[in-house]
Amino acid sequence: MDQSTLRQLLDEVASGAVEPDDAVRRLQRLPFADLGFARVDHHRALRQGLPEAVYGPGKTADQCGAIVAELLAEPGGPVLLTRADQDQVKAALAAAGAAGHDDGVVTTAGSRAAVVWRPAPARAGRVLVVTAGTADLAVAGECRAVLGALGFAAELVADCGVAGVHRLLAVADDLAAADAVVVAAGFEGALPSVVGGLTAAPVVAVPTSTGYGAALEGITALLAMLSSCASGITVVGIDNGFGAACAVARLLR
Amino acid sequence: MDQSTLRQLLDEVASGAVEPDDAVRRLQRLPFADLGFARVDHHRALRQGLPEAVYGPGKTADQCGAIVAELLAEPGGPVLLTRADQDQVKAALAAAGAAGHDDGVVTTAGSRAAVVWRPAPARAGRVLVVTAGTADLAVAGECRAVLGALGFAAELVADCGVAGVHRLLAVADDLAAADAVVVAAGFEGALPSVVGGLTAAPVVAVPTSTGYGAALEGITALLAMLSSCASGITVVGIDNGFGAACAVARLLR
Amino acid sequence: MDQSTLRQLLDEVASGAVEPDDAVRRLQRLPFADLGFARVDHHRALRQGLPEAVYGPGKTADQCGAIVAELLAEPGGPVLLTRADQDQVKAALAAAGAAGHDDGVVTTAGSRAAVVWRPAPARAGRVLVVTAGTADLAVAGECRAVLGALGFAAELVADCGVAGVHRLLAVADDLAAADAVVVAAGFEGALPSVVGGLTAAPVVAVPTSTGYGAALEGITALLAMLSSCASGITVVGIDNGFGAACAVARLLR
Amino acid sequence: MDQSTLRQLLDEVASGAVEPDDAVRRLQRLPFADLGFARVDHHRALRQGLPEAVYGPGKTADQCGAIVAELLAEPGGPVLLTRADQDQVKAALAAAGAAGHDDGVVTTAGSRAAVVWRPAPARAGRVLVVTAGTADLAVAGECRAVLGALGFAAELVADCGVAGVHRLLAVADDLAAADAVVVAAGFEGALPSVVGGLTAAPVVAVPTSTGYGAALEGITALLAMLSSCASGITVVGIDNGFGAACAVARLLR
Amino acid sequence: MDQSTLRQLLDEVASGAVEPDDAVRRLQRLPFADLGFARVDHHRALRQGLPEAVYGPGKTADQCGAIVAELLAEPGGPVLLTRADQDQVKAALAAAGAAGHDDGVVTTAGSRAAVVWRPAPARAGRVLVVTAGTADLAVAGECRAVLGALGFAAELVADCGVAGVHRLLAVADDLAAADAVVVAAGFEGALPSVVGGLTAAPVVAVPTSTGYGAALEGITALLAMLSSCASGITVVGIDNGFGAACAVARLLR
Amino acid sequence: MDQSTLRQLLDEVASGAVEPDDAVRRLQRLPFADLGFARVDHHRALRQGLPEAVYGPGKTADQCGAIVAELLAEPGGPVLLTRADQDQVKAALAAAGAAGHDDGVVTTAGSRAAVVWRPAPARAGRVLVVTAGTADLAVAGECRAVLGALGFAAELVADCGVAGVHRLLAVADDLAAADAVVVAAGFEGALPSVVGGLTAAPVVAVPTSTGYGAALEGITALLAMLSSCASGITVVGIDNGFGAACAVARLLR
Amino acid sequence: MDQSTLRQLLDEVASGAVEPDDAVRRLQRLPFADLGFARVDHHRALRQGLPEAVYGPGKTADQCGAIVAELLAEPGGPVLLTRADQDQVKAALAAAGAAGHDDGVVTTAGSRAAVVWRPAPARAGRVLVVTAGTADLAVAGECRAVLGALGFAAELVADCGVAGVHRLLAVADDLAAADAVVVAAGFEGALPSVVGGLTAAPVVAVPTSTGYGAALEGITALLAMLSSCASGITVVGIDNGFGAACAVARLLR
Amino acid sequence: MDQSTLRQLLDEVASGAVEPDDAVRRLQRLPFADLGFARVDHHRALRQGLPEAVYGPGKTADQCGAIVAELLAEPGGPVLLTRADQDQVKAALAAAGAAGHDDGVVTTAGSRAAVVWRPAPARAGRVLVVTAGTADLAVAGECRAVLGALGFAAELVADCGVAGVHRLLAVADDLAAADAVVVAAGFEGALPSVVGGLTAAPVVAVPTSTGYGAALEGITALLAMLSSCASGITVVGIDNGFGAACAVARLLR
Hints:
11 strands; 40% helix; 11 helices
């Protein structure tokens, strides 16, 4: 949707030729900016309620910088760079700064980092991010950074694995009171089943690639969560803290 | 929690010795009835917001009947029997009828059936159940029967597979307006990705075991949905229409 | 080890030419009876502390009968037929009866049965067999039948799945007091992890083929149990109630 | 086919003793040059319509140079070196230059490179190479380099993933008008299904190893593409941009 | 696209308000008939050059009949029912006959059948369907039935497996002269590699579920074909003779 | 190779125009009879030293009969029908009988049978077929029937599984004296490793689909045998007693 | 359980208000220290008979140090750091030393190390750790270090693989006399089956990631051990020497 | 078997108390040297006809040296070090040299090396090692080095992949004349099937980890070879050139 098309549409709304509702619907489906190597989707927030996030791996540092700059060039909501290495973070911060956006906040999660510009204003909703072990903190960190960008100040409850189930029962009231719970667990991935039995809130399970023995880089936890005997638990991909945060944003919108 | 313990607790609430909030909390954690072969969880609805559902496979018809009768013996919410064969349905309807509950509603989904007693009163919330093909209707049927038991009159949008993406775009406005969308798809499992791009509502993806070529009884669709490039989609197990319905109930409670 | 060899050995023990300890050691390694289609191992009990069990699948009914008869023809401990279909059970009971052993006890476990002759005398040791759900009872039944043959009166604790963890906590004291615990679970296989955190006793986990969604006929529970975050849990093969019972016999000998 | 045999054959054609058609048929089946470590197939182009391509991995830099030189020593069509590292590229360029072929064109695709000598003359046929995301550009780059060697100037349409399906619909007319479409996608690999529904042209799907969550290094996209509900889509191996280009050359010959 | 919309569009074309090209483009994207359980895509042939095929498994016999009747109710090209069991075939023939289409031609392929109505007029193009063994004939039969519906009289070359490679070399000239070759093979799936080395034509490989040892119901052949050392071979799903035929139709249109 | 070509070749040998060695070489590469659905390879025995075996599954009873008759119509060595069901056996015996070959010998192996016509004359070479358990006898039976057809009277050593390793040590001298050993084992597939350590003879390992727990229908035994720590063991596919027999025939020719 | 709660409980025991048994039971379920990133479980030894072990991978060196220090701050049994890299070892030794515990003993096992503080007093029980090959020594080393921490002086029997089964028979008497046997094996994982046939003691099998051919990083050995034809063998995860030691501690407590 | 036992045995043979045949049999089963970390099997050659080979990975350089020295300390046949890195090669050469064996011959195969001491005298038997591509040469190199140690001068036929099947047919007479053929192939692993159809000799197939697309590090080639439609082919593990050479030695002994 180029400039002139946009202007024409707005003119037609102004003149009454187009109903505002129709204009919104059309805007939801169309616009993106073609950078050659990427088609930047400026209206994703409007359509999905989620920002366009730039996923670092497989992109050059320059491409990361250019896409971030393009996204910030339009007014709008939060902009995210995820799983970025140090070069990508630097390039993106520089490109954003050159465009007048020097408010990028970097969260290091394991060997990768998430960067957030223009975070959304604070939103209501009590979100818990529960981890089975200390080694799941990187995934939980990514998840909380993205939730923060979306306006949620998520609470962390770390190291509640089922081998010491009393550590989880100690927060049973918090679980029951939550609006949404994200549970990150590796190894046998049992924690979401137990959590799902303790709360009526939506539970988004994130299998992590931690564990050994037969953990298979997270496959075991993934399969276990999908086979959970606790009803109504949903699952995202391995180590996908970003996806879990977006799922929460969808259900608490 | 035996009778006397329960009476004592209620006495203490009556006398002010126990705060009502404390009583609720204790009741959430404790009670079940031990039938020898099953421990019937009478307070699951209180704790999880979901009814105890009796999963047919692996149980004798008599066991199904006995558990259903036990669940209906206590006042409470909806009672469900899922994936039941004809003998199990008969036994359960008979046992329930003998206990004065002859309102069981049977929904046939493929070669199995779901039975619902004491459905919840109607609840607000626009839920769409979208299927990729006609062969996914059995899974969608189970999902809608369970949603019905939980009080939701879910709308069916059948046969919208991505090979004819215009069939999906025709309901784009409905998708955008929904409070929750369940998407059932086999084959390559691509439909949730496209739906996720068209709505800001929560999307619960259900991989189905339909398809051929390399569909691997639903594994391919499952993996595809977990790897979706659309943000914030969550996934339940293969053919798990029941689980998807419960997930919706959690997020629309 | 034919008759003459055996006599010679015993003569030598009698005459003092061979030390009794040496005789035991030799007897532990050698004897079996060659039926042509099977080599019946008469001294397995001596060597392993376990009876020779006849595994039904893949054998004809006549072969089952002949092997059972051969085993009963020698004095000794318990004789077992496992996973037998109805024809195999009949043939084995008949062959045993013809040989003067009409004390075979049949335990039906799902569509298969276990038969026990000459059960061992009662042995000390408190063994718990815990199941996650009602559908795991067939596996638990096989396990308890074999434990019974070996002299252990194992206690059944059914339907304690982690989605209602309070059902398990209700037997926490029994778990802590047990000498050995067998835990049978399908679906996500999380129960052994929680049990392992509640007792210092040996925990033998048996994955079962129950479940759906992504349970993969028990593979998911198997992998989960092998990846358990609870220390010191050991695992046997899928649906292998027989193996779990034998493992208990090894550790309580 | 040694020199003398070849001369004799041509003599016989010249004298009319052998029909030219027969000569072509015989030449299609026979000749190669044995370098000891490789049997260079000089007539592959004649037989398959495709050049002999030297696949870098597992070969020494010297072997790459020697094979390229041997191929260029005979008159003929395009010569390709694929997935070469820097040392292999250098050695091959040097060996080719020494043989009077200093027209090698290097295309970097990710950390590897393709080199083309003696590209084919331009051929008719509108070929589109569509990618789901920016991270698929390396595969698309290899594909376009090979297509270029074969005479096709393929058009790139980048970053059209199904989560923003409007980006794809924007090029629907181009898709409908194409003679062949190559679609490279990782993650859930859904793009070829949607493309296949929008065009009657041949669609060659290339799964890529990009993605996370449950993308399994391209296995998920591969399985999804093979299970596509869009009819008549064909698939090549993971990241095999080279193979996709060759497939296009076969169908547009 | 309902009746009135269609009429309006045609009126506009008639009046010159809409260019015919634009009308075609719009018609390509929109129309389907909603039967409740299926959305019948009447313009698929226009858009993809392929007929709507009704895939039997997972549909009731009545659904099959209703969809076939709906498809035949509109003028157009070939209509297909695939992998149908006897009841589905009967219901579809009856429904079609009731609608005045009693020209359904049934081709039995293994235990399933394909039915074709309104086959396309004969088209040019020499298509070979090559099988590795006699057990691959069911897949080849489905493929040839669909090719026949699309206007191609494909030639069958049966039982050319690589263990007797001279049987294949005997048809080398036919392979070289073909416009397209479909190769169906189970076991190790090696045949397409050899065929690909003998012809410059497009080769569509169909792995079949025949074989034993480690054939894994076609997975081995599938993986082998995708890893072929012969360049430019493309692959469809296991036993997908239908898909291979459609792929040929795309490339010979 | 039609009749006239064959006659011409033999004439040329008779006249001295073709050397007998050259004739043999040409005959090795060419002849087969095309039945339409099968290309019967009459000279396979000459080329591979093995008979053409007709594999039952996937062929109709009539096809089995026709191929067997065609093979017996030419003078030559043994003819085999393998994994045939009862109808195929009947049809093949009838067709063979009609062609004057009523010497077919049927060996039942599990639910399938092997039939042998024109067995080869007895050959030297001591072959042992060792099985781990009674349930492996069906595979051993197929193997011994095929060995018999090829002229080897293989000795059976049944039920020597590694859990009672003394049963195997009892035949250690036989193993050391054998010319070739076939070892069939399911479950953990450990027997070939132990056998390989006790003999210098060639060991062909056949994984069988017997076992439970995590035997995965023979996959576990297959992987174990391929990873054997005993040097120089080779492996054939799961349950492939036929292939093992052929391998023995190759190495004892 | 904070300080005051603990004091109150002990006061109540002192005053007779709480029975000591009840106090023990309550203490078993409750206490942990929340470090923010970890919930340190001080009473695990009481509840499970096993120490809290700190698993290195995924934790920072500082986190390792802090958790070890926290564990040593309370009086109690052995404290373990496992699979630690050099930085983690250094940080943990330093933190422990600063807290007055400079008795940490480091055992290097492959590229990782185990550190033990406050080892348990020597316990009775003859434990054998048997390895199939020299490459399994790292896993055996971890296992013996943990057994040492738990008070067991385990005996090592190295390099007894089944390809030279006489090496194992040489220690048959030791096996028969053991109280527990740990067997570590990679490749085809056959050793536990043979060991299980030679002893009546509990056998804990540890698959290791050594081997090649089709060893699949230990998966093959794992599956083989779980499918063992020797009765009563139990299995832990791949390379999990720690888990095997804990299992031994459970059964010899 | 210690020195004195050995002397006694030989004395008894000398005196006629023990038959020489009995002595040989006893010697075959017993002796090894226990180095603590390894049990060196001095009589493996006598028992298996194969030398003790030291497999490098997982051993320290010192362990490699010590084992090689121990093996060379006894008179006997060839000694092998395989898959050794540079440090291991150095240590082994040094240890061997110090023991007076400075005739170690190093063969580099990819990034690893094989070292041979005391090669066996030349043996009869024409062995061909055929590779599909240049990248399979490392595996072929290991195989030929081991064959050389065993006395066989194997001939290399490189780069005969099935995509140019005429390259293989060019050596058809050599294949027919061979006593044994080793075939190393990656990618789709089709070469052994074609070779097996061209020769009656034993064919040992070695899948290699070369290839891309869906080659899965050799798994695809492995499965394909095990499913070969050519009869009597046997298979060893992935990249196991050593195993293939030992298999040849078994069958040509």
